[in-house]
Amino acid sequence: MTSVSRRRAGRPPGESRTRERILGAARSLFAEQGFDRTSLRGVAAAAGVDVALVSHYFGSKQRLFAEAAALPVDPAEVVPRVLAGPREEIGRRLIEQVLDILDAPESRQRVVALIRAAASEEGAAQVVRERLAREMLEPVAAALGSSDAPLRAALTNAQIVGLVMSRHILGVEATVAAGREQLAAALAPALQHFLTGPLDRR
Amino acid sequence: MTSVSRRRAGRPPGESRTRERILGAARSLFAEQGFDRTSLRGVAAAAGVDVALVSHYFGSKQRLFAEAAALPVDPAEVVPRVLAGPREEIGRRLIEQVLDILDAPESRQRVVALIRAAASEEGAAQVVRERLAREMLEPVAAALGSSDAPLRAALTNAQIVGLVMSRHILGVEATVAAGREQLAAALAPALQHFLTGPLDRR
Protein backbone atom coordinates (compact mmCIF):
# COMPACT_ATOMS: atom_id res chain seq x y z
CA MET A 1 0.00 0.00 0.00
CA THR A 2 2.81 2.36 0.81
CA SER A 3 4.40 1.92 -2.59
CA VAL A 4 1.08 2.54 -4.32
CA SER A 5 0.47 5.80 -2.56
CA ARG A 6 4.07 6.81 -3.01
CA ARG A 7 3.59 6.40 -6.72
CA ARG A 8 0.35 8.32 -6.51
CA ALA A 9 1.99 11.17 -4.59
CA GLY A 10 4.87 11.15 -7.12
CA ARG A 11 7.88 10.28 -4.99
CA PRO A 12 10.15 13.34 -4.85
CA PRO A 13 13.81 13.05 -5.81
CA GLY A 14 15.40 13.82 -2.42
CA GLU A 15 14.04 11.69 0.42
CA SER A 16 15.63 13.86 3.04
CA ARG A 17 14.17 17.02 1.50
CA THR A 18 10.70 15.50 1.66
CA ARG A 19 11.28 14.39 5.24
CA GLU A 20 12.33 17.93 6.13
CA ARG A 21 9.26 19.38 4.40
CA ILE A 22 7.01 17.05 6.40
CA LEU A 23 8.82 17.95 9.64
CA GLY A 24 8.47 21.66 8.88
CA ALA A 25 4.74 21.31 8.24
CA ALA A 26 4.37 19.22 11.39
CA ARG A 27 6.17 21.87 13.47
CA SER A 28 3.85 24.63 12.23
CA LEU A 29 0.70 22.61 12.86
CA PHE A 30 1.75 21.26 16.27
CA ALA A 31 2.65 24.83 17.32
CA GLU A 32 -0.59 26.39 16.02
CA GLN A 33 -3.10 23.68 16.85
CA GLY A 34 -1.52 21.63 19.60
CA PHE A 35 -0.94 17.89 19.65
CA ASP A 36 -4.52 16.63 19.85
CA ARG A 37 -5.86 18.65 16.95
CA THR A 38 -3.00 17.90 14.59
CA SER A 39 -3.53 14.86 12.35
CA LEU A 40 -1.16 12.99 10.04
CA ARG A 41 -3.63 13.84 7.28
CA GLY A 42 -3.39 17.56 8.06
CA VAL A 43 0.41 17.43 8.12
CA ALA A 44 0.43 15.59 4.78
CA ALA A 45 -1.87 18.22 3.23
CA ALA A 46 0.26 21.10 4.55
CA ALA A 47 3.43 19.45 3.24
CA GLY A 48 1.79 18.66 -0.10
CA VAL A 49 2.42 14.90 0.11
CA ASP A 50 0.28 11.83 0.43
CA VAL A 51 -0.60 10.81 3.99
CA ALA A 52 0.84 7.34 3.36
CA LEU A 53 4.23 8.95 2.85
CA VAL A 54 4.01 10.59 6.27
CA SER A 55 3.10 7.23 7.81
CA HIS A 56 5.95 5.56 5.93
CA TYR A 57 8.55 7.97 7.27
CA PHE A 58 7.25 8.51 10.77
CA GLY A 59 4.82 5.74 11.65
CA SER A 60 2.66 7.34 14.32
CA LYS A 61 1.72 10.87 15.33
CA GLN A 62 3.71 10.33 18.54
CA ARG A 63 6.88 9.56 16.57
CA LEU A 64 6.33 12.43 14.17
CA PHE A 65 5.91 14.71 17.18
CA ALA A 66 9.05 13.44 18.89
CA GLU A 67 11.11 14.23 15.80
CA ALA A 68 9.43 17.52 14.94
CA ALA A 69 9.57 18.93 18.44
CA ALA A 70 13.01 17.89 19.58
CA LEU A 71 14.79 20.72 21.40
CA PRO A 72 15.95 23.28 18.84
CA VAL A 73 19.40 23.48 20.43
CA ASP A 74 22.13 21.04 21.33
CA PRO A 75 22.83 21.13 25.08
CA ALA A 76 26.48 20.31 24.34
CA GLU A 77 26.75 23.68 22.58
CA VAL A 78 24.57 25.83 24.80
CA VAL A 79 25.69 24.66 28.24
CA PRO A 80 29.35 25.72 27.85
CA ARG A 81 28.26 29.11 26.48
CA VAL A 82 26.06 29.72 29.54
CA LEU A 83 28.85 28.61 31.90
CA ALA A 84 31.64 30.67 30.29
CA GLY A 85 32.07 33.95 32.14
CA PRO A 86 31.52 35.48 35.56
CA ARG A 87 29.36 33.41 37.86
CA GLU A 88 27.31 36.42 38.94
CA GLU A 89 26.20 37.02 35.34
CA ILE A 90 25.02 33.49 34.58
CA GLY A 91 21.36 34.49 34.80
CA ARG A 92 21.97 37.14 32.17
CA ARG A 93 23.80 34.75 29.84
CA LEU A 94 21.08 32.13 30.18
CA ILE A 95 18.21 34.52 29.42
CA GLU A 96 20.13 35.82 26.36
CA GLN A 97 20.38 32.24 25.05
CA VAL A 98 16.70 31.63 25.76
CA LEU A 99 15.66 34.84 23.98
CA ASP A 100 17.88 33.96 21.01
CA ILE A 101 15.94 30.71 20.70
CA LEU A 102 12.55 32.40 21.14
CA ASP A 103 13.28 35.23 18.73
CA ALA A 104 14.16 32.92 15.80
CA PRO A 105 10.87 31.80 14.20
CA GLU A 106 11.83 28.19 13.54
CA SER A 107 13.25 27.42 16.97
CA ARG A 108 10.45 29.37 18.67
CA GLN A 109 7.93 27.22 16.84
CA ARG A 110 9.60 24.08 18.14
CA VAL A 111 9.62 25.27 21.73
CA VAL A 112 6.01 26.44 21.55
CA ALA A 113 4.90 23.14 20.00
CA LEU A 114 6.74 21.23 22.69
CA ILE A 115 5.30 23.14 25.63
CA ARG A 116 1.81 23.29 24.16
CA ALA A 117 1.88 19.54 23.63
CA ALA A 118 3.45 18.88 27.02
CA ALA A 119 0.28 20.24 28.60
CA SER A 120 -1.79 17.44 27.12
CA GLU A 121 0.57 14.68 26.03
CA GLU A 122 2.76 12.65 28.39
CA GLY A 123 5.32 11.92 25.63
CA ALA A 124 5.90 15.62 25.12
CA ALA A 125 5.98 16.27 28.87
CA GLN A 126 8.77 13.71 29.06
CA VAL A 127 10.80 15.53 26.37
CA VAL A 128 10.51 18.77 28.35
CA ARG A 129 11.41 17.04 31.63
CA GLU A 130 14.35 15.09 30.28
CA ARG A 131 15.85 17.28 27.62
CA LEU A 132 15.22 20.76 28.96
CA ALA A 133 15.52 20.10 32.67
CA ARG A 134 17.86 17.13 32.87
CA GLU A 135 20.17 17.54 29.87
CA MET A 136 20.41 21.28 29.71
CA LEU A 137 19.70 22.94 33.02
CA GLU A 138 20.92 20.33 35.50
CA PRO A 139 24.47 20.35 34.06
CA VAL A 140 24.46 24.14 34.35
CA ALA A 141 23.30 24.02 37.97
CA ALA A 142 25.67 21.13 38.79
CA ALA A 143 28.66 22.96 37.30
CA LEU A 144 28.00 25.76 39.76
CA GLY A 145 28.80 23.26 42.47
CA SER A 146 25.54 23.34 44.37
CA SER A 147 24.15 20.37 46.23
CA ASP A 148 20.58 21.11 45.17
CA ALA A 149 21.23 21.22 41.43
CA PRO A 150 18.01 19.36 40.47
CA LEU A 151 15.79 21.84 42.32
CA ARG A 152 17.73 24.79 40.90
CA ALA A 153 17.39 23.35 37.39
CA ALA A 154 13.68 22.68 37.90
CA LEU A 155 12.94 26.22 39.10
CA THR A 156 14.96 27.68 36.22
CA ASN A 157 13.04 25.44 33.85
CA ALA A 158 9.73 26.55 35.39
CA GLN A 159 10.67 30.19 34.85
CA ILE A 160 11.49 29.60 31.18
CA VAL A 161 8.35 27.53 30.58
CA GLY A 162 6.33 30.28 32.29
CA LEU A 163 7.85 32.89 29.98
CA VAL A 164 7.01 30.84 26.89
CA MET A 165 3.46 30.28 28.13
CA SER A 166 2.97 33.99 28.86
CA ARG A 167 4.57 35.47 25.76
CA HIS A 168 3.88 32.86 23.09
CA ILE A 169 0.93 30.73 24.20
CA LEU A 170 -1.34 32.81 26.45
CA GLY A 171 -0.32 36.02 24.69
CA VAL A 172 -0.27 38.18 27.83
CA GLU A 173 -0.01 41.68 26.40
CA ALA A 174 2.73 43.04 28.65
CA THR A 175 5.18 40.23 27.85
CA VAL A 176 4.32 40.31 24.15
CA ALA A 177 4.89 44.08 24.02
CA ALA A 178 8.06 44.09 26.15
CA GLY A 179 11.30 44.61 24.27
CA ARG A 180 14.02 42.01 24.33
CA GLU A 181 16.33 44.09 26.51
CA GLN A 182 13.51 44.84 28.95
CA LEU A 183 12.67 41.15 29.32
CA ALA A 184 16.30 40.15 29.68
CA ALA A 185 16.91 42.78 32.38
CA ALA A 186 13.74 41.82 34.27
CA LEU A 187 14.28 38.05 34.15
CA ALA A 188 18.05 37.77 34.61
CA PRO A 189 17.98 38.39 38.41
CA ALA A 190 15.28 35.73 38.94
CA LEU A 191 17.27 33.14 36.94
CA GLN A 192 20.43 34.19 38.78
CA HIS A 193 18.62 33.63 42.08
CA PHE A 194 17.46 30.15 41.06
CA LEU A 195 20.93 29.15 39.85
CA THR A 196 23.22 30.68 42.48
CA GLY A 197 21.14 32.44 45.15
CA PRO A 198 20.28 31.26 48.66
CA LEU A 199 17.21 29.08 48.11
CA ASP A 200 16.40 28.44 51.75
CA ARG A 201 16.46 31.84 53.39
CA ARG A 202 13.25 32.73 55.21
CA MET B 1 -35.98 15.46 24.47
CA THR B 2 -34.52 17.05 27.54
CA SER B 3 -37.51 16.18 29.68
CA VAL B 4 -37.48 12.59 28.42
CA SER B 5 -33.83 12.04 29.24
CA ARG B 6 -34.22 13.82 32.55
CA ARG B 7 -36.89 11.33 33.39
CA ARG B 8 -34.68 8.53 32.12
CA ALA B 9 -31.71 9.70 34.21
CA GLY B 10 -34.01 9.96 37.20
CA ARG B 11 -34.02 13.65 37.98
CA PRO B 12 -32.44 14.16 41.40
CA PRO B 13 -34.24 16.23 44.01
CA GLY B 14 -31.82 19.17 44.18
CA GLU B 15 -31.01 20.79 40.83
CA SER B 16 -28.09 22.64 42.30
CA ARG B 17 -26.65 19.44 43.77
CA THR B 18 -26.76 17.83 40.35
CA ARG B 19 -25.16 20.88 38.77
CA GLU B 20 -22.39 20.71 41.35
CA ARG B 21 -21.88 17.00 40.73
CA ILE B 22 -21.54 17.65 36.99
CA LEU B 23 -19.11 20.52 37.63
CA GLY B 24 -17.04 18.34 39.95
CA ALA B 25 -16.84 15.56 37.36
CA ALA B 26 -15.97 18.11 34.68
CA ARG B 27 -13.15 19.54 36.81
CA SER B 28 -11.62 16.10 37.34
CA LEU B 29 -11.79 15.18 33.67
CA PHE B 30 -10.58 18.53 32.32
CA ALA B 31 -7.65 18.38 34.77
CA GLU B 32 -6.73 14.76 33.95
CA GLN B 33 -7.39 14.66 30.23
CA GLY B 34 -7.26 18.25 29.05
CA PHE B 35 -9.88 20.16 27.14
CA ASP B 36 -9.74 18.38 23.80
CA ARG B 37 -10.08 14.87 25.15
CA THR B 38 -12.91 15.63 27.55
CA SER B 39 -16.40 15.12 26.13
CA LEU B 40 -19.85 16.01 27.46
CA ARG B 41 -20.60 12.30 27.26
CA GLY B 42 -17.57 11.46 29.43
CA VAL B 43 -18.52 14.11 31.99
CA ALA B 44 -22.09 12.79 32.10
CA ALA B 45 -20.86 9.23 32.66
CA ALA B 46 -18.49 10.34 35.45
CA ALA B 47 -21.26 12.32 37.12
CA GLY B 48 -23.74 9.45 36.70
CA VAL B 49 -26.28 11.51 34.76
CA ASP B 50 -27.67 11.48 31.25
CA VAL B 51 -25.69 13.49 28.71
CA ALA B 52 -28.84 15.47 27.82
CA LEU B 53 -28.89 16.81 31.35
CA VAL B 54 -25.35 18.11 30.96
CA SER B 55 -26.35 19.81 27.69
CA HIS B 56 -29.44 21.22 29.35
CA TYR B 57 -27.48 22.84 32.17
CA PHE B 58 -24.37 23.92 30.31
CA GLY B 59 -25.09 23.93 26.58
CA SER B 60 -21.63 23.50 25.10
CA LYS B 61 -18.30 22.08 26.24
CA GLN B 62 -16.90 25.64 26.13
CA ARG B 63 -19.55 26.86 28.59
CA LEU B 64 -19.11 23.86 30.84
CA PHE B 65 -15.38 24.52 30.87
CA ALA B 66 -15.80 28.22 31.64
CA GLU B 67 -17.91 27.36 34.71
CA ALA B 68 -15.86 24.39 35.86
CA ALA B 69 -12.50 26.11 35.55
CA ALA B 70 -13.23 29.56 36.89
CA LEU B 71 -10.47 30.76 39.23
CA PRO B 72 -10.79 28.92 42.55
CA VAL B 73 -10.34 32.15 44.50
CA ASP B 74 -12.00 35.53 44.56
CA PRO B 75 -9.49 38.30 43.78
CA ALA B 76 -11.43 40.64 46.09
CA GLU B 77 -10.46 38.36 48.99
CA VAL B 78 -6.95 37.39 48.00
CA VAL B 79 -5.59 40.75 46.83
CA PRO B 80 -6.02 42.55 50.19
CA ARG B 81 -4.44 39.60 51.98
CA VAL B 82 -1.37 39.77 49.75
CA LEU B 83 -1.13 43.54 50.16
CA ALA B 84 -1.52 43.60 53.96
CA GLY B 85 1.88 43.70 55.62
CA PRO B 86 5.43 44.85 54.96
CA ARG B 87 6.16 45.65 51.32
CA GLU B 88 9.43 43.72 51.39
CA GLU B 89 7.59 40.49 52.27
CA ILE B 90 4.95 40.65 49.56
CA GLY B 91 6.65 37.91 47.51
CA ARG B 92 6.43 35.64 50.53
CA ARG B 93 2.76 36.41 51.17
CA LEU B 94 1.89 35.83 47.52
CA ILE B 95 3.64 32.46 47.27
CA GLU B 96 1.93 31.34 50.50
CA GLN B 97 -1.46 32.15 48.95
CA VAL B 98 -0.50 30.34 45.74
CA LEU B 99 0.68 27.25 47.64
CA ASP B 100 -2.52 27.26 49.72
CA ILE B 101 -4.47 27.08 46.46
CA LEU B 102 -2.23 24.38 44.98
CA ASP B 103 -2.18 22.24 48.10
CA ALA B 104 -5.99 21.95 48.35
CA PRO B 105 -7.09 19.21 45.93
CA GLU B 106 -10.21 20.91 44.61
CA SER B 107 -8.66 24.28 43.89
CA ARG B 108 -5.48 22.67 42.53
CA GLN B 109 -7.62 20.69 40.10
CA ARG B 110 -9.22 23.88 38.85
CA VAL B 111 -5.92 25.64 38.31
CA VAL B 112 -4.40 22.61 36.57
CA ALA B 113 -7.45 22.24 34.33
CA LEU B 114 -7.30 25.91 33.46
CA ILE B 115 -3.61 25.99 32.57
CA ARG B 116 -3.72 22.67 30.75
CA ALA B 117 -6.63 23.91 28.67
CA ALA B 118 -5.10 27.35 28.13
CA ALA B 119 -2.32 25.65 26.18
CA SER B 120 -4.78 24.46 23.54
CA GLU B 121 -7.96 26.46 23.91
CA GLU B 122 -8.20 30.22 23.37
CA GLY B 123 -11.21 30.53 25.69
CA ALA B 124 -9.19 29.12 28.56
CA ALA B 125 -6.17 31.24 27.65
CA GLN B 126 -8.41 34.27 27.97
CA VAL B 127 -9.52 33.24 31.47
CA VAL B 128 -5.89 32.98 32.54
CA ARG B 129 -4.98 36.30 30.91
CA GLU B 130 -7.94 38.23 32.27
CA ARG B 131 -8.70 36.72 35.62
CA LEU B 132 -5.25 35.70 36.85
CA ALA B 133 -3.15 38.46 35.31
CA ARG B 134 -5.57 41.37 35.04
CA GLU B 135 -7.94 40.93 37.98
CA MET B 136 -5.60 39.45 40.51
CA LEU B 137 -1.98 40.35 39.86
CA GLU B 138 -2.31 43.78 38.21
CA PRO B 139 -4.15 45.26 41.22
CA VAL B 140 -1.37 43.90 43.44
CA ALA B 141 1.34 45.42 41.26
CA ALA B 142 -0.59 48.67 40.84
CA ALA B 143 -1.11 49.02 44.60
CA LEU B 144 2.66 48.98 44.98
CA GLY B 145 2.68 52.20 43.00
CA SER B 146 4.87 51.16 40.14
CA SER B 147 4.48 52.56 36.66
CA ASP B 148 5.08 49.22 34.99
CA ALA B 149 2.36 47.28 36.85
CA PRO B 150 1.21 45.28 33.80
CA LEU B 151 4.70 43.91 33.11
CA ARG B 152 5.24 43.15 36.80
CA ALA B 153 1.89 41.36 36.93
CA ALA B 154 2.68 39.43 33.75
CA LEU B 155 6.08 38.24 34.99
CA THR B 156 4.57 37.23 38.34
CA ASN B 157 1.85 35.38 36.46
CA ALA B 158 4.48 33.66 34.28
CA GLN B 159 6.33 32.49 37.37
CA ILE B 160 3.17 31.01 38.91
CA VAL B 161 2.09 29.36 35.65
CA GLY B 162 5.63 27.94 35.32
CA LEU B 163 5.42 26.48 38.83
CA VAL B 164 2.06 24.83 38.08
CA MET B 165 3.40 23.42 34.81
CA SER B 166 6.53 22.06 36.50
CA ARG B 167 4.97 20.62 39.65
CA HIS B 168 1.51 19.56 38.52
CA ILE B 169 1.55 19.10 34.73
CA LEU B 170 5.08 18.14 33.63
CA GLY B 171 5.76 16.45 36.96
CA VAL B 172 9.41 17.55 37.19
CA GLU B 173 10.71 15.42 40.04
CA ALA B 174 12.55 18.11 42.00
CA THR B 175 9.52 20.40 42.25
CA VAL B 176 7.18 17.50 43.04
CA ALA B 177 9.51 16.30 45.81
CA ALA B 178 10.25 19.74 47.27
CA GLY B 179 8.49 20.53 50.52
CA ARG B 180 6.14 23.46 50.79
CA GLU B 181 8.51 25.53 52.94
CA GLN B 182 11.40 24.82 50.54
CA LEU B 183 9.38 25.99 47.53
CA ALA B 184 8.08 29.05 49.33
CA ALA B 185 11.58 30.07 50.41
CA ALA B 186 13.03 29.50 46.93
CA LEU B 187 10.28 31.31 45.01
CA ALA B 188 9.51 34.25 47.31
CA PRO B 189 12.60 36.30 46.29
CA ALA B 190 11.81 35.89 42.57
CA LEU B 191 8.20 37.04 43.06
CA GLN B 192 9.45 39.87 45.27
CA HIS B 193 11.80 40.91 42.47
CA PHE B 194 9.03 40.91 39.87
CA LEU B 195 6.68 42.93 42.11
CA THR B 196 9.03 45.46 43.71
CA GLY B 197 12.56 44.99 42.38
CA PRO B 198 14.42 47.08 39.80
CA LEU B 199 13.29 45.54 36.51
CA ASP B 200 15.60 47.50 34.27
CA ARG B 201 19.04 47.19 35.80
CA ARG B 202 21.65 45.78 33.46
Automatic annotation (TrEMBL), chains A, B:
<dbReference type="Pfam" id="PF17920">
    <property type="entry name" value="TetR_C_16"/>
</dbReference>
<protein>
    <submittedName>
        <fullName>TetR family transcriptional regulator</fullName>
    </submittedName>
</protein>
<feature type="domain" description="HTH tetR-type">
    <location>
        <begin position="16"/>
        <end position="76"/>
    </location>
</feature>
<dbReference type="InterPro" id="IPR001647">
    <property type="entry name" value="HTH_TetR"/>
</dbReference>
<dbReference type="InterPro" id="IPR036271">
    <property type="entry name" value="Tet_transcr_reg_TetR-rel_C_sf"/>
</dbReference>
<keyword id="KW-0238">DNA-binding</keyword>
<dbReference type="InterPro" id="IPR050109">
    <property type="entry name" value="HTH-type_TetR-like_transc_reg"/>
</dbReference>
<dbReference type="InterPro" id="IPR009057">
    <property type="entry name" value="Homeodomain-like_sf"/>
</dbReference>
<dbReference type="InterPro" id="IPR041678">
    <property type="entry name" value="TetR_C_16"/>
</dbReference>
<dbReference type="Pfam" id="PF00440">
    <property type="entry name" value="TetR_N"/>
</dbReference>
<feature type="DNA-binding region" description="H-T-H motif">
    <location>
        <begin position="39"/>
        <end position="58"/>
    </location>
</feature>
